[in-house]
């Protein structure tokens, strides 16, 4: 049975098609880029609504299948931006009703875990999920994916994007910041904000902007931001691994593309005798294939939803999902 997945939690509209063995037949990703300033939820949702039908067609073409071959439709129910979530849910409901096929609303964060489990060979990891909107350290215990640590304010990717805008580096500044940071060599003082198992990033951004005003080199500022933030992520991830006794770490989210973060997590896990796993780039960022796959996994385990169950949930917590498939 083929599943079509619709991702629409934030800036990305993604349509993926997977089979029952997690072969990814299609994974079309279209990221909204605001002309200026930050991401406005309504404008991103308008982008998604404008292209959702054509993107579904592209995915069907990429997979070389037609709508009648699809047996299940899955969509990102949350967490995310309300207007964007509603576009994905509306498209999923339309497909479900028109094709007479079941529908599944899934948790976006759990989808990152399950696509990693299915495609990287890990089996019981601690997930470091670092993206624009989300920063969580997640592991499975007692029937749920539990959040062992998370951001108390904004996602790390969101912080990097905001910092990039403040420093004139454009939108989605993560890759630019990574590139410039490679030429930094002085570790400047920034607030290392780990509170218990949680983290805070917005103060680091404010402090970094003030370092620029004091005349420090951009290279050193961005080097210091990366070193400080990634050390915080590595610390919380390591403590979660020690707490739950797991020897695998899985990375997910757009910030997991950063090679310095990967190096630090790899170093930490290597010193613990643990293994690190990273999905392929297009399965690591927000995408429809991971939504399709989790929908299939849930359906296969006996979960069923009616259209009435498909109301989106902007604050859908990772640990609210009953993991019926493990
Ligand atoms: Fe994500």
Task: Show unreliable segments.
Answer: none
Q: What is the mean predicted local confidence, pLDDT?
A: 97
Q: Any idea what the radius of gyration is? A: 20 Å
Fraction of residues in helix: 40-55%
Q: How is the biggest beta sheet arranged?
A: 5 strands, mixed
Count of separate DSSP helical elements: 10
The general outline is globular
Structural class by secondary-structure content: alpha/beta
Number of strands: 12
What are the secondary-structure elements, in order, as H or E?
A: EEEHEHEHEEEHHEEHHEHEHH
Q: What order do the strands of the largest sheet run in, or round the barrel if closed?
A: 3-2-1-4-5
β content, as a range?
Answer: 15-25%
Structure write-up:
The longest helix has 27 residues, at 218-244. 44% of the residues lie in helices and 20% in strands. The radius of gyration is 20 Å and the shape is globular. The model has no long low-confidence stretch (mean pLDDT 97). Strand 1 (2-7) and strand 2 form a beta hairpin. The chain is built from ten helices and twelve strands. Helix 1 packs parallel to helix 2. It is of the alpha/beta class. It has a five-stranded mixed sheet with strand order 3-2-1-4-5, sandwiched between helices. Strands 8-7-6-11-12 form a five-stranded mixed sheet, sandwiched between helices. The chain has a two-stranded antiparallel ribbon with strand order 9-10. Fe (ii) ion is lined by residues 108, 112, 131, 134, 253, 286.
């Amino acid at each position: 049975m083929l599943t079509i997945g619709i991702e629409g939690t934030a800036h990305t509209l993604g349509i993926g098609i997977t089979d029952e063995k997690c072969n990814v037949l299609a994974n079309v990703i279209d990221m909204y880029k605001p002309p200026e300033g930050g991401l406005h939820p309504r404008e991103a949702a308008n982008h998604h609504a404008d292209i959702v039908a054509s993107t579904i067609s592209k995915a069907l073409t990429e997979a070389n299948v037609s709508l009648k071959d699809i047996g299940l439709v899955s969509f990102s129910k949350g967490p995310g931006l309300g207007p964007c979530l509603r576009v994905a849910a509306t498209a999923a409901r339309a497909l479900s009703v028109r094709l007479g096929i079941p529908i599944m609303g899934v948790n976006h964060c759990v989808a990152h875990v399950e696509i990693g489990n299915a495609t990287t060979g890990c089996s019981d990891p601690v997930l470091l999920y670092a993206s624009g909107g989300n920063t969580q350290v997640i592991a499975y215990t007692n029937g749920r994916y539990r959040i062992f640590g998370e951001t108390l304010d904004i996602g790390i990717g969101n912080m990097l994007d905001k910092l990039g805008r403040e420093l004139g580096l454009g939108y989605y500044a993560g890759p630019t910041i990574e590139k410039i940071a490679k030429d930094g060599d002085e570790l400047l003082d920034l607030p290392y904000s780990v509170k218990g198992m949680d983290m805070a990033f917005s103060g680091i951004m404010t402090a970094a902007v003030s370092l620029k005003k004091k005349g420090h080199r951009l290279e050193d500022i961005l080097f210091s931001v990366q070193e400080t933030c990634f050390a915080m992520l590595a610390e919380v991830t390591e403590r979660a691994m020690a707490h739950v006794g797991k020897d695998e770490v899985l990375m997910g989210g757009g910030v997991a593309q950063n090679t310095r973060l990967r190096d630090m997590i790899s170093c930490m896990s290597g010193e613990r005798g643990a293994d690190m796993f990273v999905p392929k780039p297009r399965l690591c960022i927000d995408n429809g294939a991971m939504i399709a796959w989790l929908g299939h996994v849930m359906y296969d385990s006996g979960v069923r939803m009616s259209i009435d169950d498909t109301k989106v949930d902007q604050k859908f917590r990772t640990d609210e999902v009953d993991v019926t498939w493990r």
